[in-house]
Amino acid sequence: MAYTQPHPRLSVVSNSSHSSVDHLSPTTTSRFSLPSVPSLHSSITTTKPGPNRPNIYDRPLNKTRSAEVSASAFAFLFSEVVQYTQKRVSGINDLERQLNTLGYRLGTRALELMVWRAEGSSKAPKRELKLLSVLMMVHTQVWKAVFGKGADALERSVENPDEYMIIDNDPLIERHISVPRDMSQLSCSSFTAGIVEAVLDGLSFPARVTSHNTPTVQYPNRTTILIKLEKSVLEREELLK
Questions:
Q1: Average pLDDT over residues 85-95
Q2: Cα angle 23, 78, 115; round to 5
Q3: Coil, strand or helix at 153
Q4: Fewer C-beta neighbours within 10 Å, C or N terminus of the chain?
Q5: What kind and span of H or E run contains 94?
Q6: How many domains does the chain have?
């Protein structure tokens, strides 16, 4: 695969504090009335979800479904996650670190689900051993499984052979995020970076993954996921040649 000229690496260094957000109201519980006890001669019937309301627990996990979650619901949930996390950190770096941790937890489960589905399919699962094949899998399959579409580009750094970059011109999680001007260095795609780092760790390709805002006129939300591999990965890659 041919790689295009990589984009410059951006660093996110700031000690600015965040303004507090509104306190989230506690979830209220609904009160249900119990039906009357049936007589001994009456039969008890169990109602099942109709055709328009399938039970989510009855859906097979080994079948991939597209567009199961609405974009508006995802945007609202992620916005609440960012606000909840923002209230418990002291700066931009700390906020990005917490989002990365949350993304790492999701990435671990996403990889487990993808492997389980591959084993349940008729096609025999194949474990990738080459670095480029693993990065291509993250670039396409992981992105599609989590965000419903593949990433836009995969690039390799010319100056540093241990650095690769995944480019997303229009990240789903950045689409409805409005970052204040004094927090312009914040990249909420640190959540995505955590997902990528968890997948690479799970596949025995340990790396440090960070996200950086690289906007253009055509793509103002363009994001670069920077992958810095550990030395052991490159040494193993040399032995497999």
A1: 91
A2: 140
A3: strand
A4: C
A5: helix 92-120
A6: 1
